[in-house]
Amino acid sequence: MIFYVVNHEICVGSIEVLGVSSSSLLQVGDNDTISLFSMFDTPPESVVVGQLAPLELPEGFENAEGERRPDGGSGPVTIKLR
Amino acid sequence: MRMNGVTFYIPGANLPEPTFLSLDDTNIRTSEVQGIYVNTLSQAGMLQIGDRSESNAVLRALAVQRQEDHPYAGDVFFESYVIFDRPIPAFIDANDPDSFVVTHRWNACPVISVGCISITSAGAAAQIVIGTGQTHRSEARIKHIRQYKGRHSLPPAYP
Predict the structure, then answer these.
(1) How far apart are CA B140 and CA B159, in angstroms?
(2) Burial group, residue A20, by CB count within 10 angstroms (0-12, 13-18, 19+)
(3) Chain B residue with minimal CA distance to A5?
(4) How far is A49 from chain B (nearest CA, A)?
(5) B25 Ramachandran zone, left/alpha/beta (phi>0; psi -120 to 50)
(6) CB-CB: which of B29, B115, B143 is closest to A12?
(7) ipTM for the complex shown
(8) What is the pLDDT of residues B109-142, one digit of tens each?
(9) What pairs with residue A2 in β-bridges?
(10) What is the DSSP string of B50-100?
């Protein structure tokens, strides 16, 4: 296969990036080959063991489709770690 | 090392044989950036202004949060975790001649123009390049663990 590329004018106003991380690349220019790898591992021992802060239910949770207390109450849900 | 008829040598530096960018002036694009603002560059992050041929960026990180202080809890080893030895997935190139791709590029406009670039942070073998390159390979492996105080001072040999 023969692949013809014609690069016409490219003009970018401004670029705003919060973070470039974990073997990522931000390039203004041409490159023939790029190969990027990244492995991020969060194993079971990274779990937080301890008392979780009781979080209030979000606003409008009565109409939300997500979790709901089985007893119909409106207090904060306490999660217990075994 | 030899470049443009000039031979140079850096004493003490065990550098590999350099590969130079093939400068075909008729078919290369110039990058034009009005301004760049970078707040933080850390952990093998890089900002390059200019062309390059080959780059190979590697970072291996162990992010350990410990209950016990480092002098008492002992060292942490990359060899204890298989993520740092796991093979990188290989790129499978085409074998038959019909699948070869031959790329021809014609730069009708030889300038890439960008206004202002604003980057808050770059880290973990990240690269910011203004310019042309040939090959770029980059690899980062990060393992995030918490270690609690136990009977053994050595970290567990857990994958």
Answers:
(1) 17
(2) buried
(3) B105
(4) 10
(5) alpha
(6) B115
(7) 0.70
(8) 888 999 999 988 888 888 999 988 888 899 888 8
(9) B102
(10) S--SEEEEEEEEEEEEESS-HHHH----GGG-GGGTSPPPPP----SGGG-
